[in-house]
Design a protein that fits this description.
With about 450 residues, the chain is an alpha+beta fold. It is built from 18 helices and 17 strands.
């Protein structure tokens, strides 16, 4: 009977994934870009509840048309305007989250709109938003955990799972891109191609020159942190390259067997190893609700995961405007059938163990590590950009890809811009959202 219930839950997750299929002419892009909020005087983190802290910042933004979409008591944890959100990660990282858009130009317009609202407030508070993969100054034990049931339960669950789990929660910042899928075959192909890209994206978008206040000499800090977080739900999806792994059913089976961490109906109840299937059986839940799907799917933290779309999660937080080039790169690969098929053909020569073995070398060799066909990760990155051009119109998309290509030709990966120099407050200003690359953002939003 219990097995029958598990199968019934799997069928419902499959139906949820099917409901979110999209025809190619309606494919959209999503972007989440996380920032580290710091004080300009010393680059130390800004806490939520301190005087003139994040809580005050969010209160001020409600006077600019932003509305609270989540609260803890009277304190605002999330803001929304139209379809776009400003969210808080566990250590107070500030995430700009954009609802699905038809073009990169539209995402850019929305991004600049948020900046026009938030940047003058930050200027008055003497704060900055930093685009780096890890906090540059404040140590992890000094960063308070955001007061949110989900984060408290995760923090408790992770403390015995991996040595860097709390570093992941409070110290990291990333760039996450979402793509649509058409049907089970397209879902399967995109999931596997994105998984094949894992070491390439980690390496060429490495933007973490600092760890716990010291220069980080090894490459791909983000991977090493996530690798020591929680093997149940992080890293490369188990079985993804197996011949018998196929699409919705296998992904749904993976999700329903994950430890649920906590009971969403009694948010203070810690569940330990109890799976989602066993939780819903215990609750007598026959039919899963929309909030159940959101809860389950958002508790998988794999490098590539499925929600109402496929989310690609390997890149560190990138400085403006590089993340638009990253969007263009992904669009040119995943929304162009010839390119997608070209990289899908590479799957037959790879497996999960070989990717993990590649990572054993990346920490020392970085982008010069050989991955497949005797090509280095750097060469694969260049190949991706070359082929992505085929999938892009000669408009904003191609311009953004060219900007990325020109930047990476000089500085691949982005953290390399700190090589050979002492990392100081002066050097960190080049990672500052307010200055962007060559003050482009400040010019575009016309800050006074």
């Amino acid at each position: 009977m219990k097995s029958d219930k598990r199968s019934h839950y799997i069928d419902q997750i499959i139906a949820h994934l099917q409901e979110n299929e999209t025809e190619p002419e309606d494919f959209q892009l999503g972007l989440e870009i996380e920032h580290l909020l710091v004080k300009k005087s010393d680059c130390r983190s800004v806490a939520f509840q301190e005087e003139r802290g994040i809580a005050d910042l969010f209160d001020i933004l409600t006077g600019k048309g932003w509305k609270a979409c989540e609260k803890s008591g009277n304190q605002i944890l999330c803001l929304v305007k139209e379809e776009d959100e400003i969210n808080l990660e566990p250590g107070g990282q500030i995430e700009f989250s954009f609802g699905p858009k038809n073009s990169i130009a539209e995402i850019k317009r929305c991004y600049l709109d948020i900046c026009r609202d938030i940047m003058p407030v930050l200027k008055k508070l003497d704060y900055s938003l930093i685009n780096l993969g890890y906090h540059p100054v404040t140590r992890i034990e000094e960063i308070p955990l955001l007061s949110k049931d989900r984060y408290r339960q995760m923090y408790h669950h992770f403390k015995s799972r991996g040595r860097f789990a709390h570093n992941m929660m409070k110290g990291t910042a990333s760039t996450q891109v979402s793509v649509d899928y058409q049907n089970p075959a397209d879902f399967d192909k995109k999931l596997k191609v994105a998984s094949w890209l894992i070491p390439i994206f980690y390496a060429i978008f490495d933007n973490s020159p600092i760890f716990e206040g010291r220069r980080e000499d090894k490459w791909v800090l983000r991977f090493r942190i996530w690798d020591q977080c929680d093997h149940d739900r992080c890293g490369i999806l188990p079985g993804i390259f197996d011949r018998d792994f196929y699409s919705y059913r296998d992904y749904a089976g993976y999700i329903i067997d994950l430890p649920a961490i906590y009971n969403p109906e009694k948010k203070k109840e810690y569940l330990g190893e109890i799976s989602f299937a066993k939780l819903y059986q215990r609750l007598g839940r026959t039919e899963l609700q929309p909030e159940d799907f959101e809860h389950m799917l958002s508790f998988a933290f794999n490098d590539v995961r499925a929600k109402e779309y496929l989310e690609i999660r390997m890149a560190d937080s990138l400085p403006y405007p590089l993340f638009f080039g990253y969007l263009a790169l992904i669009k040119g690969i995943f929304y162009q059938e010839e390119n997608l098929n070209y990289y899908y053909d590479k799957i037959k020569d790879i497996n999960r163990d070989s990717i993990l073995q590649t990572f054993d070398k990346i920490s020392e060799r970085g982008i010069e590590t050989c991955y497949l066909e005797d090509k280095t990760l750097k060469e694969w990155g260049e190949d991706l950009i070359f082929r992505a051009r085929k999938g892009l119109d000669k408009d904003e998309n191609l311009m953004q890809l060219t900007n990325l290509e020109n930047y990476l030709a000089r500085t691949m990966p982005p953290r390399k811009r700190f090589s050979g120099k002492e990392i100081s407050f002066d050097s960190l200003k080049y990672a500052d959202l307010e200055t962007g690359l060559g003050c482009e953002l400040a010019d575009e939003i016309k800050l006074s």
